[in-house]
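Thread: quick sanity check before group meeting

JM: Hey all, I'm pulling together slides for Thursday and realized we never actually wrote out the predicted structure for the chain we discussed last week. Dropping the sequence here so it's in one place. If anyone has concerns about the input, flag it before I start.
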Amino acid sequence: MKKYILTAVTALVLFSCQQETIEPAPQVDCNCDRVMSHTKFFLPQGIQFGEYVTINDCTGVQVNGNWSTNSGDVEPVNGECL
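JM (edit): ok, ran it. Output follows.
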């Protein structure tokens, strides 16, 4: 009887293990300050301006900035690099 129990326990241990698949970590661009949010305002002359918030994916540093079409800037796009 001990032999059957030992065989059953050994079989459970051997067949209950599953191979774990390890996925590679995504590549992070450390030169990218990703736009997290931005605002947009209009002036009567057709000028657009606003503020934006970026976060660097590597360092976690947050930067607040301003943009204006009067200065030649383009409107930031959330999720893209500045």
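AS: nice. The first strand starts at residue 33 and ends at 38. The chain has a mean pLDDT of 86.
JM: adding both to the slides.
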